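ZP: hey, is the nicotinamide-adenine-dinucleotide complex queued? I don't see it on the tracker
AM: it wasn't, my bad. submitting now with these inputs:
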Amino acid sequence: MYINGEWLSDRPTFAVTNPATGEALGAVPDCSDADIDQAIAAAHSAFDSWKKTTAYERSRLLYRAWELMIQRKQALAELMTKEQGKPLKASLNEVQYGADFLQWFAEQAKRIQGETIPSARENQRFLVHRVPVGVVGAITPWNYPISMITRKLAPALAAGCTVILKPAESTPLCARAMMEIFAEAGFPAGVVNAITVQQPARVGEAFCRDPRVRKLTFTGSTEVGCQLNADAARHMKRVSMELGGHAPAIVFPDADPVHAAKGLSLVKFLNGGQACISPNRIYVHEDHREAFVAELVSRAERLQAGNGLDSTTSLGPLIDQRALDKVNRQVKDAVAKGATLETGGDRLLNGELARGCFYAPTVLSGVTPEMAIYREETFGPVAPVISYRDGDDVLAMANDTAYGLAAYVYTDRLSTAHRAFEALNFGIIGINDINPTSAAAPFGGMKTSGLGREGAEEGIDEYLETKLGGFAI
Ligand code: NAD
């Protein structure tokens, strides 16, 4: 735990394990209620002076943190692979993506601008300032254990807010490595704090209840997000919510099915399917079904499951047994209701793999709305294929979900691309593009996928209040 510029470790601890091997990686303190209070007090008292720093000073510190991240890219990526399981190449990509937020918001700090508004009265002037919200409580998930931290902390710090981070209990070591970077970069004591906890509800409740915390930013499941949003509403707190997803992907008749299968296999099996933007319903025109499924299966079967530190590994483990059970339940349910298991469909137990929670890359075809996988987020390496025909309203089928985070479209026709982009009710839409994300672009969901956006200009707005001055002169 890092509170008020000090590392606190003389507490009861909880263990952190490598999901690929089951080996213990270390232990971190389990914070007490007094620690939570101390972290909030530190952020609260640091806010007064931090909000008065110049944008140029905040920018300089964010740049310094960015430099340190880039210098430590390899070490951070290795730690991430050990703690979270993703292949090293994916960890390196994530460290770069995470660092991008520090760089982008280091610049954006200098562009927090107000405005003057003409008044209808000759002797009146309106002046609008943009001021930091105050103390921010930030709760992050384990699936992207570094970039989800910088995606919140970089804009919050750039805006002049102080922060208390609560990382996921399965990936606190990545959070600790990031706190070391913020400390070394020279952020003053109390500006950035982190608390680790095994039972996270206590922290969520404190962030929502304590009047010193003015904003809650959360990335995680829709279930927990709804609970926190309700609690925060009782105290009229600002919230940002990045929640679950159930992304549709549509392969139109004019698309190349092999090219589409290549792209969708890359994004489906990315991070073992443990991504909020992972495709969870792949709608393929019936003319392309055979070619598409054949290519997807061949790519799934070529994936090499294993320890992400091995250079041959292209698929890591699931985070824990609970995740494994959920994936298995959805696959078995789909097969029992008539889906065809094209490949995979079971836990991998051969050799070293038995030590971790590995699930075989799986392709299901003939998936229908009665199956749990058609509605529930999977968070595992399972690609459900649904074929549709001429006359089916595939855009309506894709929209038939409570979620609204990401969607994908493959088409060679500009008019279809535009029609789909306009019709799909999702916050992020990849048109022949499987990576529609960047620090410079607004990321976030509609419907039960959340509130607010991260990245881009909108990302810093989440941490700013608007203050109007009316001046009689
Ligand atoms: P989760 O909701 O269980 O946990 C997320 C975080 O919330 C963790 O830090 C956890 O400790 C904390 N938490 C859990 N219960 C809490 C409570 N009662 N009070 C306060 N904090 C609590 O989710 P998860 O399984 O760790 O993460 C996966 C989920 O996150 C998926 O649904 C995924 O789609 C979503 N996600 C969304 C985005 C996005 O940008 N929209 C990005 C990554 C992950």
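AM: back. Residues 139-144, 168-169, 200-201, 203-204, 219-221, 224, 227-228, 242-245, 276, 377, 405, 445, 450 surround nicotinamide-adenine-dinucleotide (CB under 6 Å).
ZP: great, adding it to the tracker
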